[in-house]
Amino acid sequence: xxxxxxxxxxxxxxxxxxxxxxxxxxxxxxxxxxxxxxxxxxxxxxxxxxxxxxxxxxxxxxxxxxxxxxxxxxxxxxxxxxxxxxxxxxxxxxxxxxxxxxxxxxxxxxxxxxxxxxxxxxxxxxxxxxxxxxxxxxxxxxxxxxxxxxxxxxxxxxxxxxxxxxxxxxxxxxxxxxxxxxxxxxxxxxxxxxxxxxxxxxxxxxxxxxxxxxxxxxxxxxxxxxxxxxxxxxxxxxxxxxxx
Length: 244
Description:
InterPro entries: AB_hydrolase_1 (IPR000073), AB_hydrolase_fold (IPR029058), Sec-Metab_Biosynth_Hydrolase (IPR052897). The protein is an alpha/beta fold. It is built from ten helices and eight strands.
């Protein structure tokens, strides 16, 4: 059985993993869903200084404090950035990396680097107008993704997402990642790709080509960008398979 550490994406807390975590525990796995500074139940800890390095430290700290070993570290969406920074600091504690609808970040990369200038400027404007100059409220769903990304999110689930979402400290988007060391070749690497990301990978985008080669293993899910809500059982099955 595996030890899973689940890291939520932007605006989300550990709550978003509840159904998937329960399914994994029923299969005999140990599961810890993390809270990042300023998000979820730690929302009150947010400050303008809360950045990407803060979340890297959060992940390393929770694993070390619980003295976890042979960890399968799971990153959803935004969490790919801090997980990429934390992975090399975990040493022999880390057994496997799983990126859910996301991909690892390189040294010096920022989340804003994944966006066009117009989209990045729109986010900055929203932070200035609605987030006191340092927080990014969760956008409306028509600005979050395509129909493929939103597949499986019922009206009830969309309402849940927005009601429990926490404004994202914007410095986590602006701060470049510092990767002190890359995890070694002994660390298993798995990609779980949902609708739109799967299509992107199949389009042979050059910057993502490495994800189609060993040591990477790929598992596809026919659902949107939040599979822990839209397909929690299927996601648990994929994670279980990844750890087999």
